[in-house]
């Protein structure tokens, strides 16, 4: 009887251990944790880190900015090479670290402020439908003026040309603005060589380039991308963005 009890106890203990082991293998909490880790890896593995060894592209932002002109540049320069290599840091900059509200009503949180902005290889200056506040904001104008001393390239899109004019950095250079805005731009900043915006979509003069803005901001970004990399990489990015389908699209 004693032996029977011992054997029974051993069998029962084995069953308990087996059940415990099986439960640990199928524990929903453990599975959920593993699933969350996998999901986190999937969500973050394509996010580009800031690398000090790479050139930095700065995108100026302020309240009322046209978000297409910020997105277009980031769209182009954030794309990797065909073999997945990161080529640039792409950052947003604003006067403060408070979220800015775009013309379209979306809120963007800037990566850097005027005070802690890292060294830039290129600065892109976008526009708003009403530039009065920006042109009369000395902090924005001075930031553009000071950053231009270190950048190899400075680009304006649409009415961002007014900020370039206000800063004085492109006096004597060719520039284009939004369609219909050239006459007023020339009047306000007579030292600029304002191009006919009804005919000119994009113009380059030395380190400065400009476009009509909105979706033509892709042109200024792609042109500079080619200068900083190669024609082959530009073509790869254009294919990445399906621009050929947009150009060839028919209703």
Descriptive notes:
The chain is of the alpha/beta class. It has one domain: Rossmann fold. The chain contains 10 helices and 11 strands. The strands form 3 sheets. It has a 7-stranded mixed β-sheet with strand order 5-2-1-6-7-11-10, sandwiched between helices. Strands 3-4 form a two-stranded antiparallel sheet. Strand 1, helix 3 and strand 2 form a beta-alpha-beta unit. About 8% of the residues have low confidence.
The residue fraction in helices comes out at 40-55%
Q: What general form does the structure show? A: globular
Helix-strand category: alpha/beta
Assess the beta-strand content as a share of residues: 15-25%
CATH homologous superfamily placement = Class I glutamine amidotransferase (GATase) domain
- The beta-strand count equals 11
Largest sheet: 7 strands, mixed
CATH C-level name: Alpha Beta
CATH fold-level assignment: Rossmann fold
- The CATH architecture comes to 3-Layer(aba) Sandwich
Our count of domains comes out at: 1
Distance between the termini: 90 Å
Figure out the total of helices.
10
């Amino acid at each position: 009887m004693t032996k029977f009890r011992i054997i029974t106890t051993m069998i029962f203990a084995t069953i308990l251990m087996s059940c415990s082991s099986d439960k640990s293998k199928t524990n929903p909490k453990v599975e959920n944790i593993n699933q969350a880790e996998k999901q986190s890896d999937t969500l973050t593995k394509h996010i580009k880190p800031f690398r000090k060894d790479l050139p930095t592209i700065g995108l100026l932002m302020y309240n009322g900015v046209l978000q297409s002109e910020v997105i277009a540049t980031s769209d182009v320069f954030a794309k990797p090479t065909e073999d997945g290599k990161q080529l640039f840091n792409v950052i947003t900059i604003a006067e403060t670290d408070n979220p800015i509200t775009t013309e379209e009503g979306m809120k963007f949180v800037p990566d850097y402020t005027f005070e802690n902005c890292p060294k830039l290889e290129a600065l892109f200056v976008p526009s708003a439908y009403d530039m009065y506040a920006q042109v009369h904001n000395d902090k924005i104008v001075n930031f553009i003026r000071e950053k231009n001393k270190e950048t190899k390239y400075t680009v304006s899109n649409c009415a961002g040309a007014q900020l370039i004019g206000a800063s004085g950095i492109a006096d004597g250079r060719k520039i284009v603005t939004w369609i219909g805005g050239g006459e007023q731009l020339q009047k306000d900043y007579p030292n600029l060589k304002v191009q006919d915006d009804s005919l000119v979509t994009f113009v380059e003069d030395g380190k400065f380039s400009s476009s009509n803005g909105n979706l033509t901001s892709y042109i200024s970004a792609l042109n500079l991308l080619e200068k900083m990399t190669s024609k082959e990489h530009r073509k790869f990015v254009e294919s990445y963005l399906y621009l050929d389908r947009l150009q060839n699209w028919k209703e």
